[in-house]
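SEVERITY: medium
COMPONENT: batch folding queue
REPORTER: lab tech (J.R.)

DESCRIPTION
The queue accepted two submissions in a row. Attaching both inputs and their returned structure tokens so the on-call engineer can compare them side by side.

ATTACHMENT 1
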Amino acid sequence: MKRTFVSTLLTLTMLAPLALSAQTTMFKFHQDGEFASLSQSSDPNNSFSLNVSRNFSTAAGNSASLSYTGFSFAADFSSVTVTQIVGTIPSSDFTGQNTQNLALSFDTSQLDPSTSFSQSCTVDLFTFTLTCGPIPPGTIQLSFRENGAQRTRILALGEEITVGNFTTRIHQRSDNSTANVTGTIFGVTASGAATVGVNHSSTLEFVRN
């Protein structure tokens, strides 16, 4: 309960400031094709969620979109660091012919400030002092293998979530399946349940108000 409360309080606190205001902070991804997602709490002090999806092909070429949020608490719960990435990544980073086998190979150096938003913020939980800056360099290397243990069809999902200074709007139609995942996210071994699937004319929009 304490950790959930602190996470919620932190999220509301950290998203309010206009940190790294030079970056673009309004994106709308038209997603059509394979996607993969993973949420994990590697230990009581660290957790993250990740979603990667192929976007519509356009005359300008193919692309993929990535969203990542990670929480890391100090051992004594005196502070917490939140790392956030939202944006377009090269289509070559997300590979695989179908949902049976998908792979993500991403490096933070590939982020383009004109098509992505990223920041790392640390909050002192005693003074609520907020310090934000660029995310540290790192990589994500993941392999997803569909296992079919559970399958779900999303026929029409419409959702809007506002947290602090950010609004997320989701309109989704997709076929989903559970999957196994292996690899690392910024040096942390990936484990636990994952999801793979295919988006059908879905959209995902991020807006900083």
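ATTACHMENT 2
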Amino acid sequence: MQSDDATRLLQDTTRVRRRTRRALNPSWFSNLVFGAFFVGTAVLAAVTDAGGVMLAYWLVGAALAFTATFWFHVRIERELGVDGRAWDASGTLLIALLAGVLVANAVFEGDLRAAMPLYAAAAALTGFAVLWGDASEGAAAAGIALVATAVLVVSPETPGVWANLGLGIVLLAAGVAGRVAWRAPAERS
């Protein structure tokens, strides 16, 4: 094998690996679902003080969001003819994200309680961006960190409402951008 042929083969392999990783991890769907969930959280928090209503929304809404996302990923894997692993690096990042959010909510108060979970989310999305080679996840991570910093700097009267609204909007934008990028390689083929 000539050097040029070997280089071309390695480039083709890298390109196929990148496309396969992106096809198997359609983060755009998760971003849209959870973006809508967090916008709903912000709206609900802005219009009601009832903790029971918010708890019910979170229990039911989060369960539905996780279920929809899980089944969407399973459907994509089946369409691609791939039997995904039960546990992978994505699952580890998701657990780290949830743990970071729970710890931040338990440890911090006030503006920090609103901002620190967003920093945990930004760190996890950075991990997803690196793992999947997904620029929209990296942009979402930067946007979420910016929202968290804005909450700390501005210190609004209702930091949780603004943090959830900003998080939701960033995820919705990343979902739309990711959807366009996810389908673009398939449409060019």
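NOTES FROM REPORTER
The chain has one domain: 3-188.
No errors were logged for either attachment.
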